[in-house]
Amino acid sequence: MIADPDQLMQKAAKKANGSSGFALFGGGNKYEEASELFLDAANGYRLQKQGSAAGFAFEKAAEMQLKTDEKDDAANTYVEAYKSYRREKPMEAARTLQIAVDLFTRRGNFRRAANYKMDLGTLFEQELQNPKAALASYEDAGEWYMSDQAEALANKAYLKVADLAGQAGEYPIAIQKFEDVARASVQNSLLKWSVKDYLLKAGFCYMAQGDEIATRSALEKFNQIDPSFATTREHQLLVDLQTSIESSDADMFASQVFTYDQLSKLDAWKTNILLLIKNNIQEAEDDLT
């Protein structure tokens, strides 16, 4: 019969608060024993589908492990706390996962830290609706993947940075990431087909900035990044849209977007930024009248 987790928590707390670090008469370290009890309680709560209680118990176990300098075990236990908290208490999940990440980086385990930074980014982006924190998490993950020679994983993280930066109006950051990933992908036979999409999104970011000279220069640069880009529908769309912008013709802009969308469906990210650009054209038209 499985012990009652509430009783195990009480027993663990009593053990941890004992008078000596080591039990009398040759017993084991009280923090090690308390940790085992907290872990047993956490797993008991999991069986009862009490996620928040399990998360708290895992946290207490990790604290005991840190007192005995078991940093690797503590990091893994904080990850278990994150998993337990995630559904019911996403803020607590984020907090405990960040502690785990800090422990992994201190131990030089940047690959695992990067993996969990990606998870943290997803948590901030989806559950907590905090795109700024999500962007920072993805940025860290990308840098750590790159330092570990995991370029494909780094590029995946950098694309998340680019998307969030573009949505937040941080266009220089988005442009840099889209262009960097395009350069890294153009020589890869498996990734080359995606380059036109990265350059298209970078082009939209240039247009959203409202700098016509920079946008025209970017179109030339894109053809240097990928010489085949000039033959794509994506390149032609950028050229046509820029002509509409320079002509302050919102109707022409909308028509060109509609025509492209009939053959290549635009996703929500592209639709939103194109709507912003169209609104900028309309505002410019109003200023002229």
From TrEMBL:
SUPFAM superfamilies: TPR-like
Subcellular location, principal: membrane
GO CC term, one of those recorded: SNARE complex
Membrane topology according to the record: Peripheral membrane protein
UniProt keyword Transmembrane helix, yes or no: no
Keyword GTP-binding listed: no
Gene Ontology biological-process entries: intracellular protein transport; SNARE complex disassembly
Keyword field: ER-Golgi transport, Membrane, Protein transport, Transport
GO molecular function ontology, one term from the record: syntaxin binding
Compartments where located: Membrane
Family under the similarity heading: Belongs to the SNAP family.
Function of the molecule: Required for vesicular transport between the endoplasmic reticulum and the Golgi apparatus.
Name listed for the protein in its UniProt record: Alpha SNAP
Taxonomic source organism: Schizosaccharomyces octosporus (strain yFS286)
